[in-house]
Structure formats: structure tokens, C-alpha cells
Amino acid sequence: MDWRWILGVLIFLIALLCWTRVGVLVTLGEPLRVEVKAGCLRFQVVSGKKRRPRKKPPKKEEEASSGEDGAEGKKKRLSFSLEEIRDAVRTLAPPLKRALGRTRRGIRVTPLRLSLVLGGQKDPASAAKLYGELNAAVWAGMPVLEQLLDIPDPRIHTEVDFNAEKTRTEGTLGITIRIGTALAVGIEIAVPALRWLLRCMKKHRKKKPAPESSGAAAA
Description:
Layout: H1 3-19, E1 21-28, E2 33-38, E3 41-46, H2 61-73, H3 82-103, E4 107-119, H4 124-148, E5 154-161, E6 168-178, H5 179-207, H6 214-218
Helix pairs in contact: 3-5
């Protein structure tokens, strides 16, 4: 077979792959359900069925006593504060907006049915402040997202329940994207995201407490 035929077939397959749509459909609430789509294929990742807890064998006394000492040596997972998440939004929003503008609404969000009820029993002031920030973000962000993404009929509801202790989230969110669009967006925001992550990791290293000296422990 001529090399031009092989090259043509490869280009056709790459183009077909880039035009293939993949997506996810998330049903929030109790239980949580997650369904993944790839072209004509669909399969559930999280079915929402509650699994029976496995019975753990009883631990020995020696393992229980050494567990506290050994826990200190385990690596802690990197967690991000609310301020760091806000910094991520400020850092990634401009390149993400540019990337989505170039893809010409290649991302489709449907359905979009979200209901968020904030629990404000423990800290009413913080819940009210978060409620205001969420509404401001929705009213300011949704018009921009509707210009960049294909969102036919968005419905978002937020409120505060000062008698509830926990926050309740319900609704259905479906997102589909072409593989080529996902690659283009990922390449655009890869460098800013890596810089933000390295900056956060550097801050977390500085916050680590200094180890106590042996003399202080003896005192």
C-alpha cells in the first residue's frame, strides 16, 4: 500500500477521533449517579447503590498502640483553602475564556438543573455571605458561559436554610465535549494551572511547623 494511502487513513482516523463526543451525566443527591458517554457507548461509573460495609478484622493491641506513632509518618493529602480556590479561578479564568472562545461553543451543557440549599445552623453569617457570593457568581458568570458554551436551558436555584445543619445539593448535570476541543482547552490552560499548583505547594511547604528540638522535648 502506498504511503499516501496510509497517511490519508491516519488523518481520517485522527479527525474522526477529534470529532467524537465524550461526556458525563451526573445526578446529584442521594444516591449519587455518574454515567459516562463515549460516542454511542454509555456505561455507569457510580450506580448509586449502597454497598454493604465489609467487616474489618479486629486489630491487635500492638498495631493499635503503634498506629498513632505511624500515622505521623504518613504523607498528608494536599488540601486547598477557599482563598486558594478563588486564586485558581482568577488565574485560570482568562486562559480558559480564550480557549473556549476559540472552540466556538464546542462544549454542550445539557441538562443543567442544580439546586443548592446552604445549611446555616452552625454559622448563619458565613452561610449568608457564601449565599451572596454564589448568587453574584451565578448572575455574573452564566451570561459569559452561555456565550462560550452551548447551554440550551440552564436552571440554577440557591437558598439558605438557617434551620439545617448540612448543605443539600440536588439536580442533574450533563456535559459533552469533542475530544479535539478537550485537547485544545487542556493545552491552553496546562501551563497556568501548573504554575498555580506549584505556587500553592510552595505555600503549603512554608506553613509546615518546624520540628521540635530534643532539648525542648526533654524539658
